[in-house]
Amino acid sequence: MIISVSRRTDIPAFYGKWFMKRVQAGYCLVRNPFNPKQVSRISLQKKDVDAFVFWTRNARPFLKYLRLLEKEKYPFYFLYTVTGYSRDIERHLPRLESRILSFQRLSGIVGFKRMIWRYDPIIISREYSFDWHRKIFTRIAKQLSGHSQCVIISFVDYYRKTLRNLSEVDDSFIVHPENVPGFAQFMRDLADIARQYHFEITSCAEEITLQQFGISPGKCIDDRLLASVFDVEVSSKKDSRQRKYCNCVASRDIGAYNSCPYGCLYCYATDNPDRAKQFLRNHNPDLEWLV
């Protein structure tokens, strides 16, 4: 069983103490986000866990726990998002250079093969144009080169709340960038930049085909990575609980929605940033469940 830590929130940034307490206890409880009365008990015992897959934008608070995970010999890797939007979009993230340094430091501890850079989501607007993305993608790729060998890209999914939140700061966001002149060259340029800095570039859950630009469909939770890095064999069957175009293999997610206080306007996992801040203030790391 692969444990996803977590698509729903940033556990390494905010809830690392809770996670490690649950690892030591050997299990955690997880509420069904669509039916809170339904609670599942998820084993975190070594014999039951094929790997932990961590999703984060800021792993610095989690670094102090890595030694214990390594000591217990749990296989794990990081899906580490680094983008460069301004504070009007990514309201409470640490500054970009700080996040890059944290990425580099983590890579130095766990090794570059366990670090996947996510340049996600890609938002296209007047301010965040194709040229803007070329420049920031190049800047980040240059600094992460040698600290990771894979980058995953994805365009923003405009859920109703996402579109509402983004429209509060800019009315020029483009829902279908593939229809914008210059899109094909933009994709080819990202692929070229990735290769220049020694990254394999793949896409995440994209309906549009990018293979003609040198960008293959990828898997964030990836059976091939587990086999190559850890010699762990898991089923390659697609996770049926994920979106139609998601290629991830099956996992169990132990996070909770509306619990990440970073306040990114494109986030699908948080409806109300103030509610998420309140959640963090009230959080008790001794509980069996995150929420």
Number of helices: 9
- The quaternary organization reads as single chain
Give the class from helix and strand content and strand pairing.
Answer: alpha/beta
Number of beta-strand segments? 10
**Overall pLDDT confidence:** 97
Estimate the global geometry from the Cα principal axes.
Answer: globular
Helix content: 25-40%
Instruction: Going across the biggest sheet, name each strand in turn.
Output: 9-8-7-6-5-4-1-10
Percent in strands: 15-25%
| Poorly predicted spans | none
- Termini separation comes to 22 Å
The radius of gyration is: 18 Å
Q: Count structural domains.
A: 1
Q: H/E element string?
A: EHHEEEHEHEHEHHEEHEH
Report on the biggest sheet: 8 strands, parallel
Itemize the secondary structure elements and their pairings.
Layout: E1 2-5, H1 11-14, H2 16-25, E2 27-32, E3 35-43, E4 51-56, H3 66-71, E5 76-81, H4 96-110, E6 115-122, H5 130-144, E7 150-155, H6 160-167, H7 183-196, E8 200-203, E9 216-217, H8 223-230, E10 252-253, H9 273-282
Parallel strand pairs: 1-4, 1-10, 4-5, 5-6, 6-7, 7-8, 8-9
Antiparallel strand pairs: 2-3
